[in-house]
Design brief:
By secondary structure, this protein is α+β, with helices and mostly antiparallel strands. It contains 19 helices and 44 strands. Strand 7 (71-75) and strand 8 (80-81) form a beta hairpin. Bound molecules: beta-D-glucopyranose.
Length: 811
């Protein structure tokens, strides 16, 4: 069952039934000010950091789900309703939500009145702008009472939820003209406040939550709205909110726009006050003035759309598969941009409190957006590398506001350092900017400790070399990519976190074949980079370590039909025939096949066939099989999940592309394509009822074949799945790969594909690429013509910036 449809021309997903199986959300803003908005108007806003600068409040895991948000209540004399159906839940005559690129519109029609709320964060603006358009479609005069609503969060989203003995006494607001200012704690150490304005004189307002709702009422029945009369309440402590009351009279056929601005301001310490206890509102007023008419709002929305046109025009594809094209051209790229902005911090599954920017996550995300915004990728790489330690180890996460390593989450995840090589080489291949390697970058953000970024890559590489176990394989440390395979944890205390409890690695033999494969893949990238910049001695040194790793994998990592997953603390195999549960895992088989280890000897094909046989199912490839059915103290969190979920045999969509890429190494385009489709959201749109989460973005996990409800997805939006699938489809299936010297063309497609076209902007030039596959090949390019001239090999040389060329590829 579907709950809407794609509108590709407008780059929107159109939801036509508000009762989606889960809130289907969108993200507004992509630089400093951010909002999450659900299809019924739920969600919240923050400035830069979802934990420390939470502007509006949100309650997770609420009943009903997704309660609280940016609401408009309409009292038309007959009914009280909201354009998004919720929170009033008054049955609407029609409903439509359109989620677009960083904007959403929610439209409801009731009793002949159409109300459409547009939400977006204009470019370079610290505010969310909302335009409420009211239209009278009847022949009678309509008198409408419009109440807006947001609930302020007391800034720190964590303490906001727990420290009520203080919170209930600190709230402060100011009301001036049609603007409600939230200034809690501004008097003391904060230099920031928030505001909510409307571009009309208001006939009343409320800022005290209990006065607005009545103590015994929920979001669906605010007392003031039901009575049609605001109380003009001024919050002192308790829970401050902002609600404007505006009366609108509409003649038959008439329409009217109200513009609301929800903004954030920072003032310099010596510029905080206008007069005693009266905040300096200059900046707020300037922003409000920028959007005080509907026309100005429309212009800002057009600018946002033009910005997205530009981002999405860097790579466009045309195939015979509409569902594929809309993912590659629109939604997958959009999701990559969102994961760039948020890492794993704020979604409807991530509270915005627990996790900051992940070291490994952010580096992987980079391959999904670097072509869109290379400058910001550059900045991100420097930020990430600045949290590294001199020995190459790193904090697992850092806080976006301070950009400092987050010690609460700890360190010692031994795959982390290698991802920096991926992030950096991906950036240079895209941009050609080798100067980043000379950039001085500190360790642990300590001024004076700066070394070149290239040196950071060297210590990343050496972190693996210096942490090898008895079998010559990488020690896994706290965990490798699989955060939940905690081989040195031995936790028997339910009150401690698997991620941060003591890492008992002394004398441990826990070694990871996933890191081993990763090391070979990105180690080779490191070698190629060294050679490209003329550092041949370093290339040679590194190559020796890679060769040794390949040998160690063949010797100690092969189980006969697939690659072993790991060795545990005691040196016992994990992911082997010898195991009763967890005989085979996806990660090591993904990375070792991507690395092409044993390709000639048939190991790659064999490993991939074992994956097909044992891990593949209707909804995707599960992480391991058979699932763990009891708690293994020596494996940690992975065995804490019920079978079929998350890291215990769930379909962890992040790593399905590793197998897809592995299949392209083997040249099996049919398998790669089959796997790609299984987890691709536009292909699962038809089963939205089962799938539950948004059909326009990837989810981190789909319940696996051993789960209670296979096919049910969770953790949509913020997942490395976005970048990895984009990377797999564009660079390995369509096969358009940026390299240091040009664009490599190496498609690996399903034999029934007759061809496809790609327009790729690369280092300032435009490449119009047409691939033809008349003979039903899966891989292998037989000739390439650039502007009619045949080239040697499959790398199209760089064109001068501004130029464009026609590339004809015959498979
Ligand atoms: C984390 C990743 C991790 C993955 C697998 C995700 O939630 O963000 O860093 O690799 O889980 O455990």
């Amino acid at each position: 069952m579907k709950y809407g449809h794609f509108d590709d021309n407008r780059r929107e997903y159109v939801i036509t039934n508000p009762r989606t199986p889960w809130p289907w959300i969108n993200y507004l803003g992509n630089e400093d000010f951010f909002s999450l908005v659900s299809n019924t108007g739920g969600g919240y806003s923050f400035y830069k950091d979802a934990k420390f600068r939470r502007i509006t409040r949100y309650r997770y895991n609420n009943v009903p789900m997704d309660s609280g948000g940016k609401y408009f209540y309409i009292n038309d004399g007959e009914s009280v309703w909201s354009p998004g159906w919720k929170p009033c839940k008054t049955e609407l005559d029609s409903y439509e939500c359109r989620h677009g690129m960083n904007y959403s519109t929610i439209k409801g029609v009731k009793n002949g009145v159409e109300a459409e709320a547009l939400y977006f964060v204009p470019l370079k603006t610290w505010a969310e702008v909302q335009k409420l358009t009211l239209r009278n479609t009847t022949n009678e005069v309509k008198k409408l009472k419009i109440f807006s609503f947001v609930e302020w969060c007391l800034w720190n989203a964590a303490t906001d939820m727990e420290n009520f003995q203080r919170n209930f006494s600190t709230g402060e607001v100011e009301i001036e003209d049609s603007v409600i200012y939230h200034k809690t704690e501004y008097k003391e150490r904060r230099d920031h406040f928030a505001y909510y304005s409307v571009n009309e004189p208001m006939q009343g307002f409320d800022t005290d939550r209990e006065t607005f709702f009545g103590l015994y009422n929920g979001f669906d029945e605010p007392q003031t709205v039901l009575e049609g009369a605001p109380r003009n309440s001024e919050a002192h402590g308790w829970s401050p909110i902002a609600s404007h009351y505006v009366e609108v009279t509409l003649q038959p056929g008439e329409s009217k726009d109200l513009v609301y601005v929800l903004g954030y301001v920072e003032n310099a310490q010596d510029d905080k006050w206008e007069s005693k206890n009266i905040i300096n509102k200059t900046k707020a007023k300037a922003t409000i003035a920028r959007f005080d008419t509907a026309e100005k709002v429309d212009v800002a929305l057009e600018e946002l759309k033009a910005y997205w046109d530009k981002l999405l025009n860097v790579f466009t594809v045309k195939t015979s598969e509409e569902k594929l094209d809309r993912m590659v051209n629109i939604w997958n790229q959009y999701q990559c941009m969102i994961t760039f902005c948020f890492s794993r911090s704020a979604s409807f599954f991530e509270s915005g409190i627990g996790r900051g920017m992940g070291f490994r996550d952010s580096n992987q995300d980079l391959v999904g957006f670097v072509h869109q915004i290379p400058e910001r990728a550059r900045e991100r790489i420097i930020d990430i590398a600045s949290t590294q330690f001199p020995d190459g180890g790193c904090y697992h996460q850092y806080q976006p506001l301070t950009k400092k390593g987050n010690n609460e989450i700890g360190q010692g995840f031994n795959d982390d350092p290698m991802w920096l090589i991926l992030g950096t080489t991906a950036y240079i291949k895209e941009s050609g900017d080798f100067t980043i390697l000379d950039e001085p970058v500190p360790f642990d953000n300590e001024a004076g400790s700066e070394v070149s970024l290239f040196h950071h890559l060297t210590v990343s590489f050496d972190h693996v070399v210096n942490n090898l176990g008895p079998l010559g394989l990488p020690l896994s440390g706290r965990a490798d990519w699989n955060d939940c395979l905690n081989l040195n944890c031995f936790s028997n205390d339910p009150n401690e976190s698997f991620q941060t409890t003591e890492n008992k690695s002394e004398g441990s033999q826990a070694q990871s074949l996933m890191i081993a494969g990763l090391f070979v893949v990105y180690g080779r990238d490191y070698v190629e980079l060294c050679k490209t910049i003329g550092n041949f001695a370093e290339a040679e040194r590194a190559q020796k370590h890679i060769d040794a790793m390949v040998e160690a994998i063949k010797l100690n990592g092969w189980d006969g039909d697939w690659f072993i997953r790991a060795y545990d603390y005691f040196g016992n195999k994990i992911g082997s025939k010898e195991n009763e549960e967890g005989k085979i895992f996806i990660e090591s088989n993904g990375w070792c096949t991507m690395a092409g280890i044993g390709l000639e000897e048939g190991m790659v094909a064999k490993a991939l066939d074992s994956v097909k046989e044992r891990l593949d199912c209707e909804h995707g490839i599960v992480l391991n099989n058979p699932p763990f059915t009891k708690y293994y103290i020596e494996y940690g969190e992975i065995s804490s999940y019920p079978p079929g979920y998350k890291e215990n045999a769930g379909i962890f969509c992040h790593n399905n592309p590793w197998i897809i890429i592995g299949e392209t190494v083997q040249g099996r385009g049919d398998r790669a394509w089959e796997y790609f489709r299984k987890i691709c959201p536009s292909y699962t749109e038809e089963i939205s009822e089962l799938h539950k989460v948004e059909p326009y973005v990837y989810a981190q996990m789909i319940a696996g074949k051993d789960a209670f409800k296979p096919g049910e997805a969770k953790n949509s939006w913020l997942t490395g799945t976005a970048a990895w699938n984009y990377y797999a489809i564009t660079q390995y299936i369509l096969g358009i790969q940026p390299t240091y010297t040009g664009l490599r063309i190496e498609p690996c497609i399903a034999p029934e594909w007759k061809g496809f076209q790609v327009t790729r902007k690369f280092r300032g030039a435009t490449y119009e690429i047409e691939v033809r596959n008349p003979n039903g090949a899966m891989k292998g390019v037989s000739s390439i013509l650039v502007d009619g001239k045949r080239i040697e090999g499959n790398i199209i040389p760089l064109m001068p910036a501004g130029a464009s060329c026609k590339v004809e590829v015959l498979m």
